[in-house]
Fold:
Amino acid sequence: MSGPAARASILESLKPPPVLSGPIRSGELDDRLLTPVGRRPPLAWFVAFAVTSTAALLGFALIVYTIATGIGVWGNNIPVAWAFDIINFVFWVGIGHAGTLISAILLLFRARWRNSISRFAEAMTIFAVICATLFPLIHVGRPWLAFWLAPYPNQRGMWPNFRSPLLWDVFAVNTYFLISLLFWYIGLIPDLASLRDRTAPGVRRVVYSVLSLGWRGASSHWHHYERAYLIIAGLATGLVLSVHSVVSFDFAVSLVPGWHMTIFPPYFVAGAVFAGFAMVVMAMVVVRSTMHLEHLITAYHLDMMNRVILTCSCLMGYAYLLEGFTAWYSMNPSIHHTFRQYIGGTYGLAGWITIACNVAIPQLLWLRWFRRNIAGMVFVSLAVTVGMWFERFVIIVSSLHQDFLSSSWHVYRPTLVDYGILVGSFGLFFTLVLLFARVLPVIATTEMKMVLPGAQPRSGEGER
Amino acid sequence: MRGNSRQVTMLAGALGLAGVAAAFFFSARERFWINWVLWFLFLLTTGLGSLFLVALEHVVGARWSVPLRRVPETLASLVLPMGAAALVALLSLGTLYPWTSAEGLRDPLVAGKAAWLNEPFFALRVAACVLLWAASYRVLAGGSRRQDRTGDPRFNRRARRFAPLFMVILGLTITVTAFDWISSLEPAWYSDIFGVYVFAGAFLAGLAATTLFALHLRGAGRLDGVGPDHLHNLGGFLFAFTVFWSYIGFAQYMLMWYANIPEEVFWYEARLEGAWGGILLALAVFHFLVPFLVLIPRAVKSDPRVLLRVSLLMLAMHWLDLYWMLFPSIGGAPVFGWPELSFALLFLSGGILWVRRIMDGGATMPVGDPFLREGLEFRL
Amino acid sequence: MKRTQEAFSVLGIFDTPDALIRAIGEVKGKTGHRLEAYTPYPVHGLDRALGYRKSPIGGMVFVMGFIGAVSALVLELWTSGWDYPLVTAGKPVLSWEAFVPILFEITVLFAALAAGLGMLLLLNRLPALRHPMLRTRSMALLTRDRFGLAVESAGEPLDTEALAALLGKAGALEIEVVEPSPARGPASPTALATGLAMILLACLAAAGTTYWGIKLFPRVIPMVHMLDQPRLDPQSGSPFFADGSGMRPPVEGTVSQGAPPYLPRSRQEAEGLVNPLPGTAAVFRRGRAAYDTHCAVCHGLLGNGEGSLTAAYGARPTRLTAGAARELSDGAIYHVIVTGKNAMPPYASDLTEDERWAAVHYVRVLERALDALDTDFQEGAR
Structure:
């Protein structure tokens, strides 16, 4: 089919759609996005909050029980000394990385479609990292002495072991949390100023005033602000790569067969982005429908996020292939045994779940229908979330339960407390998300205003 | 001017050819073949990196890069002569690769891999890679050339659909190439990040070569419309992927250092002793530290003079990286004598002549691409 | 109303970014006062229109990043290499490879904090909660969808009417004259007192928290679990034993390590003991060390009974190098060392077996040195 009409239609299909559908002006954007903040939310929010906070409280109760009684209430044993605690830690840290990728890396690439989802994604990063830091804290056995990890001069004359990847974790995750918080907060300042100016005088207005630091939108301020924001985005990009690499070092520097694979750093980073985007997609789907933001978080946004998920799925497939091949290629009988265990041993089912959910099911995203249909993408994202959790399970538990010394081999069985704390972490995460949706604008209003048609001088559409 | 430099290049190439022929007869066989492998890998990875850049631009639908796209497309044509060179390099297997000999197979670690490391399967893999690369080149670069004449936007759609497939192909083929040609020189060694490492170096080399070639063309007035904003993006990519390459290289080294497993560290030990350690230090400084620090300031990223020097440095360092990985396998201290110089003259001249011939055969910009105008109007 | 002395700025409101940029072009040359634009989001081209220099934030970030890198490296190298060198997994003590991750993280931390806090606090001088613009009625418009251009006073008086006319001609839809913030005046006594009280409170809070953290918190469950263990602490009593004492003496007949029981009950029985150590220079040196430490204080460094304690205690320790002492056998001397004699206490607990016999050798050395007999020079002399 050729001819000018066909060519024109192909050209149209190649152009990226506008980042929002329907005409909208700056002021209307404020009304749409800032009015719900602080207002009484719909009933559905309360129901959801009740569920999530119950789960979170359950989790906290079980954590208190663990600390009071001891780590023995978990299923951890020797040789499986790390289990749900570290699985959950790696899982949650991974989920945080999507937010930074969306808000920082896509900013550097000047991808305009990021503007409507960046605020929410960054918030998810912060909440995910909060959930993540919970686990190293409680798994140390004596959490009240966790401050020993910090390098401060003390009467014991000791310093923490800077050569240990566990200490690298402490620095990396804390740095990541601080910088994500700073980045998120700086992005919030102009929105808080808008909220301040829309609120009648009172306590709320004072709070917004203080939090927005008296921001007034002065051009001399924007000048430094934009530059600093871009620089922090660049630095946060470095953090995305490094934090999950440092987490992977926890495993890769060891000698445990199946752990000491040099591909772990980029493999873990790809896995983190993968799991994170799946969580963002699921959360976005809920947010856009409950808050009626479909014209701002359009099918195009969801399509792009699904493409990232698909890319990461291919990267994971590559990593699994390489791991399997190199395991064979190493001619190391312990590694051979471990890899056979991944798909055939006590936890063989977990291995197959991992491969099915991480490599097979997301391939559905090659089909446009799955990228644009809500049910389809939620199915894939759910599969990815489950698959990525199981992947960490396979890496940690399956490798540990049968390593070098066969007399040490032992089966790991999680206890109810393990499951309860995992459920509690999900509860905590979604409770924080719900609270965030209630007190702060879920879309970065100021950043959206920047990309509205007519927002920038001379050219009609802003820039790409 | 162009005619003059062409003659100089041809002269250099002829000298190189003579030197290479002499090296075949008069220098050690291993030394001859390791040079051949080094040079064909150097130009091949540069070509593959450039082709990956083209594919990446199609996948994300980038507009800013459209005016520049013909440059990496042309550099990607190197995969054709280098594919042929790879097939010639199959003659080196007996000399360089221990797993081809009975003596090498006495090591049980090597003998166990015989299902993968055997000459017929190896040759089959090489042939498959060459075919896949040639086919991908035809689709992406050949299609773009055809679009110059037809202006048909269907190419864009086809390229956008093929590009992700090519990325999968590249990922697998470059991994196989890395494992086969480089790491199997010492077949007991294994590292699963090695494919990623070679890919990172290849992509960086492709970016550097693209930048270099683009600056050259721009200087000769053949890339009008490519301005500081485009160069800034190229500089940004160079910066980012310098960091990425360094990260992968450091990750591999640090993990092997930390676990200190004999079957893994012997590869590094050979590459750290004596002058080889000095070369690694030079790589750390000139392949990471210097480009990283130089490219930090925003203004520098769009400065043509700095970009020229940095790109040249990156390409030289990519060569040094391959040299450092390959040469210790033939034993002894680092050498750079007349054989190495001859190979350099031959392959560099050949590569330059080949690329320029391809570029001179058509437009320097994808004039048939419907998004060319938008790309030229790109401003930061 | 014309106010020449008191206005902070004259503000013009525009409804499109193009109008704002055009207005800047028109107003810029015609007034010497400072111009500031107000926009709800960053508008491209404003920096150029207003002639801003490049932001110094990049340099600040680089410097702080460098400081972070150096600090991290110094911290790691000093703690792991000098102050508390710890050899883990056989790695060299100054293992730079292992220090890179934390080095990287701290560099990024310092750099990012410099960017964020430097931009907010230093360059933009925020928080600025009392700025005159925050009390204008236009502020709500400016954070919503309008664009403002203000001619601001840096302290000099403004001709508000003329400036209002200028802005109006440049296309402003509304004009507002911005009043300066009410002067703060010197701090009132109550304010000062409140401030001091808050500082005092903060100090008390810090002190209290520290005290609680160090003294009281360890006593709280579960901190106290480590201290309250069901075990026997030294010096504590125990109801388990009849005499209520937690510390038990060793069982009857216990022999301590390295101290086999000494059997001779009298000097006569000890006469038979033979010195097991050879008469080598090493043994003599050891014996000298033992003698100088334990014996010389009474018997003197030369064995002549004139030690440092002699005068103080009015004691008369034996002269070891003369007379009757010379006639003593090795076993007899050993017996005296172990069981003591008269005012000399037993030295069994002070000297090991080997040290005692070495000391015996040394006594012989002293005897020979200070009072040699002809027979000593013969072969096989004792």
Remarks:
- The CA atoms of residues 55 and 130 of chain A lie 16 Å apart.
- Chain A has a mean pLDDT of 91.
- Residues 165-198 of chain A form the longest helix (34 residues).
